[in-house]
Write a structure and sequence with these properties.
The protein is α/β, with parallel strands linked by helices. The chain is built from ten helices and twelve strands. A six-stranded mixed β-sheet has the order 2-1-3-5-6-4. A six-stranded parallel β-sheet has the order 9-8-7-10-11-12, with helices on both faces. Helix 1 packs antiparallel against helix 10, helix 4 crosses helix 5 and helix 9 crosses helix 10. It binds 2'-monophosphoadenosine-5'-diphosphate.
Length: 297
């Protein structure tokens, strides 16, 4: 892939620590090229103590935008000039846009999850959503789906975090939300309904812990939609078992792609080539999975 870099090329970048396994440079550079946007995307490994200096350099260097990942999604907010209302509600930023020297923070993770469900034809209206987790990703997703679904149940290992998230959603009057401790009894009780959308928004099942799952296979049924935000491996144990049970399984690649597509559109003002971004990410994930299998042998 050749990106023609000129004196007027705009720069976007990922900041985080670590960033070496990120798919974003591959995905965004291919997308820029596809729509003829004069942009380039790099990844910067930034330690906590260098975060403020790095953000202050963004207007000075005329960097157009950033993606923000672990561990800076919350701490970066205090260095920005403005926050999008959604990012403010969520309490975390994953995208920054430099508008004439003023930095505005956004959070596109929740929209990414919603888009991933919608492009699979999933309608949340009249549905009960059971969400596992109450961390950063779960918060972003919950703020998007809470007002769309009929009912949202948040189950988390640390119950207090589930309660805190549920409380912060309750200001939206139309929201019907409940928080519980994540354990087998509560899972059994909450999954014992029809047409449930189950979302794993924890990191359980992610490489290198591919054998882990929070839901025993006997609780999975064929009228469920099971969405796992983990994308590495593409098919987690939870999704494998969901498929065996006859449920509809949705992997985490869509969320990764659509949160990136939303950031892309904020920076470039152009429509993101989401299908291309998805195929690039899938190809790279499969390549890495193959390499891991070879190395295991
Ligand atoms: P992220 O930004 O990726 O969401 P996070 O904010 O650290 O990361 O949140 C991780 C989520 O995964 C949390 O809900 C966490 O549960 P706790 O709040 O109890 O820590 C959940 N999680 C991680 N490992 C888990 C495990 N082994 N069992 C159950 N939940 C787990």
């Amino acid at each position: 892939m050749t990106i023609p870099i000129t004196p007027s090329t705009s720069l976007c970048a990922l900041i985080g620590h670590p960033v070496s396994h990120s798919f974003s440079p591959l995905m965004h550079n291919a997308a820029f090229q596809e729509v003829n946007a004069d942009f380039v995307y790099l990844a910067f490994d930034i330690k906590e103590e260098d975060l403020e200096k790095s953000i202050k350099a963004v207007p000075a260097l005329g960097i157009r935008g950033l993606n923000v990942t672990i561990p800076h999604k919350v701490s970066v907010m205090k260095f920005l000039d403005e926050l999008d209302p959604v990012a403010k509600e969520i309490g975390a930023v994953n995208t920054i846009v430099n508008e004439n020297g003023k930095l505005k923070g956004y959070n596109t993770d929740g929209l990414g999850a919603l888009m991933a469900l919608q492009t699979e034809g999933i309608n949340l209206e009249d549905k009960k959503v059971v969400m596992l987790g109450a961390g950063g990703s779960a918060r972003a997703i919950a703020f998007y789906i809470a007002s769309e679904a009929q009912e949202l149940v948040i189950l988390n290992r640390t119950e207090s975090k589930a309660i805190e998230l549920a409380e912060s959603l309750k200001y939206k009057k139309e929201v019907n939300v409940k928080a519980l401790k994540l354990n087998l009894d509560n899972l059994k009780m909450e999954l014992n309904d029809k047409n449930i959308i189950l979302i794993n928004s924890t990191s359980v099942g992610m490489h290198p812990n591919e054998n882990e799952t929070l839901v025993t296979s006997d609780l999975l049924k064929n009228d469920m939609v099971v969405f796992d935000i983990v994308y590495n491996p593409i098919e987690t144990r939870l999704l494998k078992e969901a498929k065996s049970a006859g449920a509809k399984a949705i992997d985490g690649v869509g969320m990764l792609v659509y949160q990136g597509a939303a950031a892309f559109e904020l920076w470039t003002g152009k429509r993101a080539p989401a299908d291309l971004m998805k195929s690039i990410v899938e190809k790279e994930l499969l390549k890495r999975e193959k390499r891991r299998r070879r190395e295991k042998k």
